[in-house]
Structure formats: C-alpha cells, structure tokens
Amino acid sequence: MNHNDPGVATLELSTIQPIAPDQRHGRARDLFTIWFGSNIMLLTVVTGALAVTVFKLPFIAAMVALVLGNLIGGIFMALHSAQGPQLGVPQMVQTRGQFGSYGSLLVVALVVIMYLGFFASNLVLGGQSLHSRYAMFSTNQGIVLVGLISVVATVFGYRLIHAYTRLMSYLSGAILLLCFVWIIAVHGLPADFLQRNDMNLAGFLGTLSIAALWQLAYAPYVSDYSRYMPADTGGKAAFWSSYWGCCLGSILPMALGVIVGLCVEGDIIGGLIEMTGSIATLVVAVFSIGIAATNAMNLYCGTLSAITVGQTLVPKWSAGALSRAITALVLFSISLTLALFGQDDFMANYTNFILLLLYVLVPWTAINLVDYYLVAHGSYDVASFFRRDGGIYGYFNWTAVGCYVLGILVQIPFMATELYTGVIAKAMGGADVSWIVGLVVISPIYYLASRRRSRKPSVGALGRNA
Question: Would you say the C-alpha torsion 397, 399, 403, 406 has a positive or negative sign?
Fold first, then answer.
C-alpha cells in the first residue's frame, strides 16, 4: 500500500464513480491475495467434488479436467482484471462502452441475478457446515451469521474486503494444506482410490466446463477489485497476479473436493468433517469465515451493479456510502430468502444454476474482451459512461446486443442440462461444449462487425482518468 491508502477500516465513499489518480493505491500483489484468499472456501470444495460425484470421473481424469478448465477460464478472468487500473470504473459501468447506456442493462441485470445466486449458495453451505459441526447453531442461524459478516464488509467496502481476503489467504491456505496432510497421512485413502469411477468423455467435458465457468463467473466483477490500482500498475502485472491467484486458489480446494468425493458417499461437507477428524472443528470454522469473505465480494459487486442500473435510469444520481449500504441490505434480504427456502435441493439447484450462467456470460465476455483489446485498444470516453444518452456510445449498440443474443442462440444445440439437452449435445453423449462454441463464434463476428461500425472516442477519451 502507498501513502494514498488511508487504512482498511476507512469507509469507502465512492461507488461506481471513476477513481481519480490521487485516490489510487495498492500493488499488483494485492490482486493475488484477493483472488487466492476468496477462492479457498467450501463452495470451491463442493464444486471440485462434482467431477467425481456428478460426472463420475476417476481421480487423474478429474484433476486434468479441473486444472485445464481453470487455466483456460482464468485467461478470460485475468484479461478483465487488467482493465481496472486503466479505466478506474467497475466492470459493469464499462460495459456501457460496448452495449450503450440502455443496451448494457440487459447484461447488468443478469449479473445482479448471478451475484444473488452465488451469495445464496454460499449462505446455504456456510449454514449447513456450521450446523454440522457446531450443534448450537441451526442451519438457518448459520445462514444468517455468515450473511451478517458479509454485509459488514460490504458496507465498509473495497479496502476492508481486500484486507479480509489477504488475511484469509494465509489462514485458509494453511488450513487447506493441513487438510491434505491429515487426510492423506493420518486418515488415509482407500486402497482402490485410483480405480474408483471410469473415464468418460461427457464427464470430462462437463468437468472442464464447470471449472472454466468458475473462472468466467468472476469476469463481470474482477476489475471492480483492480479499479483503485494506480494506472501505472500495468496490464501485465494485473493480469498475472489475478490469474495465478484465482487459478491456484481454485484448483487446490477443488482437488480436496475430488479426494473427499471419491472417498465418501453423499454429503461432501459431512465427508470432509469425517475425514479431518479432530481438526474438523478448526477446518469448518476457517472455511466458513472464508465463505463470508467471498460473499462480501459477491454482495459488494452485486450492489455496484444494482447502483449501475439505477444510475443508468437516473443519470444525476451519484450514489455514495449510504446508498451502497441500503442497496446491500436489500440484496442481502433477497438472497437470505432464497437461501432459507431453497436449501433442501441445494446441490441440484446449484449445478443447474452455474450451467445456465455459462450460457449468458460467455457471449458477454467475448464481446467485452474483443472490444477492449482489439477494437478500442483500452481507450474509452469514461465521461460518456455516465450520460443517459450514452454519449459517444449511444443508448444501444445494436451490433453488441445482436451478437450477445446470437451468442446465446448458437449455444442451444450444444447445451446439456437437466432442464434441456441440445441435439448436438445428445449426439455427443451429453457432453457440454457450448461455451467453447459461443466464444469461437461470437469473437470474430463481433470484431468484424465492430470494425465496420468504427467508433472513435472523443478528445479527452480516457483510458486515463480525469
């Protein structure tokens, strides 16, 4: 941190406004800890376990698919992160530069729903794990407790969330390492551990997709946590710090989920508690605190996105800390309701939820990255982002909106979910490669269409900040 940073307990006053140069602070390494620390939690463990419980892969195939998926998805996530120091605004505000002021509302509204879904999923897991280890808590009380910790961090904002995840990088990282050592050396693995489950292509591609989506799901908010970095942080430093922080922070707990999933039948959290024996109380406590850290990030960015919707409709509104607190409490109430009433079918709901997310996030990430890196070359008129008429970007960029809708449509034949399986996915034995198709098809189409449209930022265009 440098002299511009007044300390972690300071209430953040900004919300979606551009961050001025004299308010910039932090170093690229802060991006490593925020993504490493926030990923080491129970939801990541449960997601890794899907490789062997839902997709029925053996250990080696599960790990290859999870590592590959994270490393591929992480590229897109980190490319978004590198935009933060350059533009100094939240990701969903910057989306107006591709979709126009009203056109962006479609994507921003979907992203708010995404944050609510992840927040509710984390609340359920936190509540269930606290109840399973600490009998004095009911599941509902655990859900409320994890949620309240998240709200406090959201109200204080950016600095406290960064400090929280920095602490969790060390604490959760140490507990994760202890889990591996204990399960392998003390508890022991079954003799047929490596022979359990059989390789199947549909399961491999399904696991690859889930892991890639884990990273892609951060794309709509990753630059929210790099927007305070000084502009001279550099795109490369922001990219690699975010990339390795998020990939390593995801792959390691997912590997723990694979090990537990292969060793136990049924409940993964119960299996983790059983296999960690006398250290289970510590494991559950730390990983539950980790859930609260990640949920603070989800709620914070959901709040910024909701404020973005409001400011689009009422351009004169300049939301501050009080607006962030009130918006956060409203979103928290919605997620809390979802968690309390949707906890019984949690795993089925969660799996369907993240697959549906994939289909709507992929075309957005393709459009955003192609526009930023290949069309606008990082140079945007930030002042236009805050005008009702979208300034030089207009109300709607029909090229982007059309490509976005097309991006969802081209994935339909390749989709494989409980709700719907496309004809090509059926022919491939239920393998879901829709996200690959979406990226490969939409990226060149949007690039070519945008080159024809050829917009140029006005004088004073910022990739710098006023």
Answer: positive
Residue 114 domain flag: yes
Residue 367 lies in a domain: no
pTM of the model: 0.88
Evaluate whether 325 touches 151 at the Cβ level (below 8 Å): no
Neighbours of 345 (CB within 10 A): 9
Q: What is the CATH number of the domain that holds 131?
A: 1.10.4160.10
User: d(Cα 301, Cα 115) in Å, to the nearest integer?
Assistant: 8
Q: Are 413 and 424 in contact (CB under 8 A)?
A: yes
347 Cβ contact partners less than 8 Å away, ≥ 6 residues apart: 46
pLDDT tens track for 125-144: 888 888 888 878 888 898 89
State CA 458 to chain mean position distance: 33
Structure tokens at 170: 């060390």
In a domain, 8, yes or no: no
The Cα–Cα gap between 196 and 59 comes to 8
Whole-number average pLDDT of the chain: 87
Please tell me the distance from the alpha carbon of residue 310 to that of residue 114, in angstroms, as a whole number.
18
pLDDT, one tens digit per residue, over 325-357 is 999 999 999 988 888 887 777 656 766 776 677
**Tokens 């709700």 belong to residue:** 419
- Tokens standing for 256? 């723990």
Say how many domains are in the chain: 1
Distances (CA, A) of 10 to 5, 156, 160, 168: 9, 7, 8, 20
